[in-house]
Amino acid sequence: MRQTNAPLRSRAAEPGPRGIAGIPGAPALGVSSAMVTTASPSNLTTEDAAPENGSFYYDYEYLDSVLFLVCTKEEVLSFARIFLPVFYSLIFVLGLGGNSLLLVVLLRYVPRRRMAEVYLLNLAVSNLLFVVTLPFWGISVAWHWVFGSFLCKMVSTLYTINFYSGIFFISCMSLDKYLEIVHAQPLHRLRTRAKSLLLAALVWAVALAISVPDMVFVQVHEHPKGVWSCYPDFGGHGTSWKLFLRFQQNLLGFLLPLLAMIFFYSRIGCVLVRLQPRGLGRALRMAVALVVAFFTFWFPYNLTLFLHSLLDLQIFGDCQVSRDLDYAMQVTESLAFLHCCFTPVLYAFCSRRFRQYLKALLATVLRWRLGPGPTQASLSRGSESSRLTAQEDVTGLNELAQGSAVGSLKQEVVGSH
């Protein structure tokens, strides 16, 4: 039992397995003890009551500061316990399969002489590490946190690192195409393996720095009836930290990468229109698709985060708005997580050369399953032919041997897709 004479401040109630409502860089649903609140203009009384199912750390009751009414969230929690585990499982299966296949193809067939291949490889690794964390959050949402203190910190940190590194590597890929086409950077300049690895290491270092609050503040918490939850505890500065982390997500995880992609691909489009290379229409459609896909996946989630910040600041909102934003957070977050499933398809498997890689990989698998014999010899020849064709495509098209550096590089990029 806790007594206070101060008004109970509205706190954004965003479901998420990580715990603190509305903190980006963590799945948005967390459950712990439910706050059962009764209120009057002169006095507020709150009681902690453990939930029967789940370990959500959640602002379970929202007090309308104008009407002094209790706004319950049980229906939001019930929806989350069903929707989020199912959606996290779907993303896990699709993301694990697609990115594992992409990783195998890259490691087996792509020589990684260019920065684009290095970035794509790191993106696949980032996506894989990201989706691996989702089953932990799914179990936490459906039941409670059962994995202990060490995994609480590790899974939270791993989540945040790969949440941001995936976005950063997508931005790096657009920068690479911009340098290759607009500035016609030769393949031996700024595109060496050493410099590619250095820039990739810098991306990982920045993502690691962003995850420091997870390392410091995230911990397990015990609640009545043996319920445990995993979430960051910021002490008396919870609202300030939530606002800061949301702003960080809006800026570093969406606005700056989006503006960079718009700038890079618009400049690429201008150059391609002027040069009129072979495959112009396909190249322009791909550039537009990349920007539109990024915006579609991430804008709804970031808008919801921003609205939650306004709600925390009491700029607007009431009980119904709070509920609606809770539902919106669950849906838009799940949509944003789909990027790790869609990215391999858009960046790799729609490419002509990656279809060659997949044919070679399939031939290798079939040869291994069928064993020695005439069929194996045929498949072996097909696999080797596909591999040689693919490696030739990676190192450059035939047009690179002739013409100006600008024109040949444009044709290489367009032809690779």
Automatic annotation (TrEMBL):
Domain named G-protein coupled receptors family 1 profile: residues: 98-347
Q: How does it sit in the membrane?
A: Multi-pass membrane protein
Where does it primarily localize?
membrane
PANTHER family from the entry?
ATYPICAL CHEMOKINE RECEPTOR 2 (PTHR10489:SF942), CELL ADHESION MOLECULE (PTHR10489)
Q: Tell me which domain of life the UniProt entry assigns to the organism this sequence originates from.
A: Eukaryota
Biological process (GO) annotations held by this record are:
calcium-mediated signaling; cell chemotaxis; immune response; inflammatory response; positive regulation of cytosolic calcium ion concentration
Task: Indicate whether Magnesium appears among the record's keywords.
Answer: no
Membrane-spanning ranges: 82-107, 119-146, 158-176, 197-218, 251-275, 287-307, 327-349
Specify the protein name: Atypical chemokine receptor 2
Pfam families found in the cross-reference section: 7tm_1
GO MF term (any one) = C-C chemokine binding
What cellular-component terms does GO give this entry? actin filament; cytosol; early endosome; external side of plasma membrane; nuclear membrane; nucleoplasm; recycling endosome
Instruction: Alphabetically list the UniProt keywords.
Output: Cell membrane, Disulfide bond, Endosome, G-protein coupled receptor, Glycoprotein, Inflammatory response, Membrane, Phosphoprotein, Receptor, Transducer, Transmembrane, Transmembrane helix
Q: What is its subcellular localisation?
A: Cell membrane; Early endosome; Recycling endosome
Q: Which residues form the signal peptide?
A: none
Region: Disordered; residue ranges are 1-20
Q: Which Gene3D superfamilies match?
A: Rhodopsin 7-helix transmembrane proteins
Q: Which InterPro entries match?
A: ACKR4, CCR1-9-like, Chemokine_rcpt, GPCR_Rhodpsn, GPCR_Rhodpsn_7TM
